[in-house]
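Hi all, long-time lurker, first post. I run a small reading group and we've been trying to get comfortable going from sequence to structure in the token notation. Rather than ask abstract questions, I figured I'd post a concrete chain and ask someone more experienced to write out its structure so we can walk through it together at our next meeting. Sequence below, copied exactly:
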Amino acid sequence: MIKFFRHIRQRLVAESKFSKYLLYAIGEIILVVIGILIALQINTWNEERKTNANLSKALKALKIDLAQDSLLIAAYLPEVNQEYQFNESLRERMAKPKATVDTLLKITRNEFNPNWNNPIYYNTNAYKSLNDTGLIDVMNDSLKTHIKEYYNGKFYREGMVESITKDYREKLAQYVNTYTFGSTHLHDQGELIDSLVWHNVNPTHLAASFQGISNFKRILFRLTRDEMEYSLNNSKGLIQHIDQNLDPDD
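-- Answer (accepted) --
Happy to help. Here is the structure in token form:
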């Protein structure tokens, strides 16, 4: 093809047909420009196809993360609610008018467990990948806003839980340096240690310690429950929104 155009150009020059040569040259330039534009468009289409494929893959991964987290929450939320109610029941018994020092000793020595463990570690790799790769910025504004609002709300609540957990663990360290508590698979101090620790306990200090740490645990339960319920309830709508943006045949 190149030799063909070169032959035409050489013949026009040899015949001194300048005007025709000029038109030919312009036409050749236009063809070259059109070829470049077509090549650029094809390259753009290919890049868009790759981007859309990567975005679809990332959204599917995000959907899996949300679904798995929902299953974890559904499994652990009843336990959190149960532990919260138990903690509240101990506080209510201590607040009754007929409560005595013996009531306080019975609860703190045999029933109250100050331990705290985060019930769930969430899957956030897919969301972080969306941000790290910039794919979150190429999706439509509605879905992008929905995803960011969901995770901003989630991370805010997780931050509150983390902050209170840090304060709680400081109080927990102080508490266990003074008192033992009911035997568990992690804490089996034995009768001797238990009896020595609880011999001649200062009821005033014990009451203040129990009130403080059980109140902190109440706050932790509430914040944890709020975060879990937020994640569980709002992830359903986000999963549906993701489905609307996925090709059902993909």
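A couple of things your group might point at:
The longest helix spans residues 18-95.
The mean pLDDT is 84.
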